[in-house]
Amino acid sequence: MPYVNIKITREGATSQQKTDLIKGVTDLLVTVLNKSPNTTFVVIDEVATEDWGIAGMPVHEFRNHAQT
Amino acid sequence: MPYVNIKITREGATSQQKTDLIKGVTDLLVTVLNKSPNTTFVVIDEVATEDWGIAGMPVHEFRNHAQT
Amino acid sequence: MPYVNIKITREGATSQQKTDLIKGVTDLLVTVLNKSPNTTFVVIDEVATEDWGIAGMPVHEFRNHAQT
Amino acid sequence: MPYVNIKITREGATSQQKTDLIKGVTDLLVTVLNKSPNTTFVVIDEVATEDWGIAGMPVHEFRNHAQT
Amino acid sequence: MPYVNIKITREGATSQQKTDLIKGVTDLLVTVLNKSPNTTFVVIDEVATEDWGIAGMPVHEFRNHAQT
Amino acid sequence: MPYVNIKITREGATSQQKTDLIKGVTDLLVTVLNKSPNTTFVVIDEVATEDWGIAGMPVHEFRNHAQT
Questions:
Q1: E37 touching D (Cβ < 8 Å)
Q2: Is E2 a catalytic residue?
Q3: F66 in contact with E at a CB cutoff of 8 Å?
Q4: Which of A20, B49, E64, F40 is deepest in the core (most CB within 10 A)?
Q5: CATH number, domain at C61?
Q6: In angstroms, rounded to a whole number, what is the distance separating the alpha carbons of residues A39 and A21?
Q7: pLDDT, average across residues A43-59
Q8: Cβ contacts (< 8 Å) between A3 and chain C: which residues?
Q9: E22-62 pLDDT, tens per residue?
């Protein structure tokens, strides 16, 4: 009975993409560990880019740096 | 000093129901483990149904299947 | 289909106490929000006291201060 | 830059199976959302069966019920 | 490659304050544990005060009590 | 009343380093957001390197790649 939490930046993931993530992760747990899908939970969190930091700065600033 | 995180699907839980969850969980920790309520945190997350998966599909789709 | 995570300091909680927490939280979600127990997960994490901080210090140090 | 946390019951998952989970989830995020693998984290938590509850009871008790 | 999650009540933290948190936590991990900032993630969650409980009640109620 | 969770790979962080993390994060929340230290929790999780993935592989394998 796995529980999976996926955190991504909020940048327009569609309902279909979320559905694909849920299906894909669940299939993976069935394939690799023989888990039952009926007791597999997946929770997706979308996080605003100002709330996500990497390399000591918010994501959007990080990307500007990376492009320089 | 427990920390409790309750994740539920976002489906109209009222402020009173949240208050009841917070009180109920805190009382439980006091009763079972003799924890101090003053250092017991409870955080409730409401998750959109398209962001919660079970059995390899989003919750709303799962419910449609279950009703068939 | 709630997911509840309970974090407590590791200080000898027994299997029976954990069972009581699991049952108590699940009952609470049934009572307050009419959730189905069959799709309610509870995960308990025990955290070493040196890994839990409050008031800027590890728990065991905090308790020494509090007793002074 | 996704962060994925996979919680499973501690029941002997091998290093290879964990490697397969890490690779599988990362590939999924690349395929579905075009995420960069280099900034994709996956953290696996194995949880003792007495610390995981479903249907108001610990997992091992739940399985005994289910088999009856 | 640390992952840090900071949960605070939603009470008007500014983008600058969030940037300061992200920078401060990352610097701390570099200083104390010599971690690489490039693989250090920080995720900030703001939680509505009705969703955060302490001492068995929601935060806003707790503050009213504390002021009495 | 913030709650901070710090996840690091398990590689011999000392009690003193954990104490420094707890103090440093708490001070940061006091300085940046004027939070009360008495209601600031910090929980540190050490994760085995085989349970932490980056770039689609476990940390130890990733480091071998990076050194090549």
A1: no
A2: yes
A3: no
A4: F40
A5: 3.30.429.10
A6: 16
A7: 97
A8: 3, 41, 43
A9: 999 999 999 999 999 999 999 999 999 999 999 999 999 99
In 3D space, the residue among C52, F47, F2, E65 whose CA is nearest the CA of residue B35 turns out to be C52
Residue E19's domain comprises 3-67
Residues forming a β-bridge with C47:
C9
Q: What is the total count of domains within chain E?
A: 1
pLDDT tier for residue E68 given thresholds of 50, 70 and 90: low
**pLDDT value, residue B67:** 67
Tokens representing residue B64 in the block:
């449609």
Using a CB–CB cutoff of 8 Å, tell me whether B41 touches chain E. yes
- Catalytic machinery residues of A: 2
Q: What strands lie across the sheet with F3-9, from one edge to the other? A: A57-58, A52-54, E41-47, E3-9, F3-9, F41-47, C52-54, C57-58
Tokens of C45: 């994490």
ipTM for the assembly: 0.96
